[in-house]
Amino acid sequence: MALQAALWGLVSGSALVLGAGIAYLFNVPKRAIALVMAFGSGVLISALSFELMDEGHRIGGVTAVAIGFLTGAVIFTLANRALATMGAKHRKRSGDQQTDQHEGGGTAIAVGALIDGIPESVVIGVSLLSGNGVSIAAVVAVFLSNLPEGLSSAAGMRRAGRSPAYVFGVWGGIALASGVAAFAGNVLLAGAAPSTIAFMNALAAGAILAMLADTMIPEAFEDAHDYAGLVTVAGFLTAFVLSHAVE
Predict the structure, then answer these.
(1) Dist CA 97 CA 9 (whole Å)
(2) What distance in Å separates the CA atoms of residue 50 and residue 137, rounded to the nearest whole number?
């Protein structure tokens, strides 16, 4: 089961490499990237609402999910502030912002991408603990959200003059780390109390929502503000329908 979790984590993480490849090989318009970011944001909001928070509340109660949710948001915010001072403030931006990053920013971007991706991957590993197989909705949601993340950040790296080896090294490494995180989530939480699993689900949800509000949604609104709301709603609805279709 743990190896299966790793495989699904790797599948969802591979979208980062796919998005990076599209951005590096083609000159994708910033408005198009913004619209994809908006769609991915809607997908993740739906996933964290139903696959994480609602499920966590069902198995562990409101106290566990409330504490986990706030803890995840605090951890992400503190880590994000630290990374911003190291040069990764604009790691998800598709424009020229990454050209302003100081020395050491490349490492910070890689660390930031790892922090962004770990909570999502752990959730995939945890979803297998129910004994009903992996949550396909969670895998698809993470995949669809990783695609615009890789697309946007790699486009910014390209404009900043990053080499192909750097771009694909970063995202390939994060994709592999996604598989490891899913594996770890499955192994370390096997046999855990329902309240602990609920806490971890909510912790991931809090970190993901904080990331969306801080990075993906602002990027989407900046270049596609006329339609960002509508496309975000479309992403939410897509994930919601998918989640119920595979029940």
Answers:
(1) 30
(2) 10
